[in-house]
Amino acid sequence: MPIIIDLDVVLAQRKISSKQLAQDIGITQQNLSILKTGKARAIRFSTLDAICRTLDCQPGELLRFVPDEEG
Protein backbone atom coordinates (compact mmCIF):
# COMPACT_ATOMS: atom_id res chain seq x y z
CA MET A 1 0.00 0.00 0.00
CA PRO A 2 1.48 3.34 -0.93
CA ILE A 3 0.22 5.08 2.25
CA ILE A 4 2.81 4.81 5.01
CA ILE A 5 1.89 5.39 8.66
CA ASP A 6 4.62 7.15 10.63
CA LEU A 7 2.83 7.08 13.97
CA ASP A 8 5.71 5.21 15.63
CA VAL A 9 8.12 7.94 14.55
CA VAL A 10 5.94 10.73 15.95
CA LEU A 11 5.35 8.78 19.18
CA ALA A 12 9.11 8.38 19.62
CA GLN A 13 9.72 12.07 18.90
CA ARG A 14 7.10 13.05 21.49
CA LYS A 15 8.27 10.34 23.91
CA ILE A 16 4.74 9.05 24.36
CA SER A 17 3.94 5.35 24.57
CA SER A 18 1.31 3.68 22.43
CA LYS A 19 -0.52 2.73 25.61
CA GLN A 20 -0.64 6.34 26.78
CA LEU A 21 -1.83 7.59 23.39
CA ALA A 22 -4.54 4.94 23.26
CA GLN A 23 -5.76 6.01 26.70
CA ASP A 24 -5.59 9.71 25.83
CA ILE A 25 -7.63 9.39 22.62
CA GLY A 26 -10.02 6.73 23.89
CA ILE A 27 -9.30 3.78 21.60
CA THR A 28 -8.04 0.32 22.41
CA GLN A 29 -4.36 -0.51 22.20
CA GLN A 30 -5.27 -3.22 19.71
CA ASN A 31 -6.93 -0.72 17.35
CA LEU A 32 -4.00 1.66 17.73
CA SER A 33 -1.64 -1.20 16.89
CA ILE A 34 -3.64 -1.98 13.75
CA LEU A 35 -3.30 1.66 12.74
CA LYS A 36 0.43 1.82 13.56
CA THR A 37 1.26 -1.28 11.54
CA GLY A 38 -0.58 -0.07 8.47
CA LYS A 39 -3.15 -2.86 8.67
CA ALA A 40 -6.06 -0.44 9.04
CA ARG A 41 -8.14 0.01 5.91
CA ALA A 42 -9.48 3.38 7.04
CA ILE A 43 -9.18 5.99 9.76
CA ARG A 44 -11.94 8.24 11.03
CA PHE A 45 -11.28 11.95 10.87
CA SER A 46 -12.28 12.12 14.54
CA THR A 47 -9.51 9.63 15.40
CA LEU A 48 -6.98 11.50 13.26
CA ASP A 49 -8.08 14.74 14.92
CA ALA A 50 -7.62 13.24 18.40
CA ILE A 51 -4.16 11.88 17.52
CA CYS A 52 -3.04 15.21 16.07
CA ARG A 53 -4.36 17.15 19.07
CA THR A 54 -2.70 14.79 21.54
CA LEU A 55 0.64 14.62 19.71
CA ASP A 56 0.54 18.27 18.60
CA CYS A 57 1.24 17.35 14.99
CA GLN A 58 -0.17 17.67 11.49
CA PRO A 59 -1.77 14.76 9.60
CA GLY A 60 1.10 14.91 7.13
CA GLU A 61 3.51 13.96 9.90
CA LEU A 62 1.54 10.75 10.43
CA LEU A 63 0.67 9.77 6.86
CA ARG A 64 2.71 9.88 3.68
CA PHE A 65 2.20 8.64 0.15
CA VAL A 66 4.90 6.51 -1.46
CA PRO A 67 4.05 5.48 -5.01
CA ASP A 68 4.53 1.87 -5.99
CA GLU A 69 7.58 1.25 -8.13
CA GLU A 70 6.83 0.35 -11.71
CA GLY A 71 8.56 -2.45 -13.39
Describe this structure as you would to a colleague.
By secondary structure, this protein is mainly alpha-helical. It is 55% helix and 8% strand. The chain has a two-stranded antiparallel sheet. The longest helix is centred in the C-terminal third of the chain and has 11 residues. The radius of gyration is 12 Å and the shape is globular. The mean pLDDT is 93.
Total beta-strand segments? 2
Return Rg in Å: 12 Å
* Strand portion: 5-15%
The strands making up the biggest β-sheet line up spatially as 1-2
Our count of helices gives: 5
Name the helicity range.
40-55%
- Biggest sheet statistics: 2 strands, antiparallel
What is the topological layout?
Elements: E1 3-5, H1 7-14, H2 18-25, H3 29-36, H4 45-55, H5 59-62, E2 63-65
Antiparallel strand pairs: 1-2
What's this entry about, in short?
By secondary structure, the chain is mostly helical. The protein is built from 5 helices and 2 strands; from the N terminus they run βαααααβ. The chain has helices spanning 7-14, 18-25, 29-36, 45-55, 59-62, and strands at residues 3-5, 63-65.
Key traits:
single chain; 71 residues; mainly alpha; two-stranded antiparallel ribbon; 2 strands; 55% helix
